[in-house]
Design a protein that fits this description.
- With about 130 residues, the chain is an all-alpha fold.
- It has one domain (about 1-120).
- It has 5 helices and no strands.
- The chain has helices at about 1-50, 50-60, 65-70, 75-95, 100-120.
- The longest helix has about 45 residues, at about 1-50.
- The protein is elongated.
Length: about 130
């Protein structure tokens, strides 16, 4: 009987210690991804010389990223090149400070063009009022 009680207490303590850290990790990962998305959007808005409100209005009107870039008087290619250069500089700082490996930096930069092109002609979907974030 005594062994059984010890096992129950050990199992309960394991659950109490492990469960919060698992949820905290999931929350941190979600926040981390959202942080990068917000950072990227702000870099784009700055590059175009728009305010967040102007950019969001264009998106809500159904404009694609390509159309917004053209309305701002730039070409998609020059915006992509400028953003990629800034992103590379930011990643290089992380490599220099040992926060990231050179291999990881290169992998991220290889995906940059693909992600930019993917979003260039993507139409904005209206979010439901319960799902709206920003």
């Amino acid at each position: 009987m005594r062994k059984w009680i010890i096992y129950v207490i050990a199992a309960l303590m394991t659950v109490l210690v492990v469960t919060p850290s698992v949820y905290a990790h999931d929350y941190k990962e979600g926040c981390h991804k959202n942080h990068h998305r917000t950072e990227a959007k702000q870099a784009l808005v700055d590059e175009l010389g728009l305010t967040k409100k102007e950019f969001n209005t264009y998106r809500e009107e159904g404009n694609t990223l390509r159309q917004i870039i053209l309305k701002a008087g730039k070409t998609p290619e020059e915006v992509k090149k400028s953003l990629k250069k800034k992103h590379e500089e930011s990643l290089q700082k992380k490599v220099d400070e040992d926060w990231m490996t050179e291999k990881k930096k290169q992998a991220i930069l290889e995906k940059f063009d693909e992600h930019f092109e993917k979003h260039l002609d993507h139409k904005h979907r209206e979010k439901s009022s319960t799902n709206k974030k920003d």
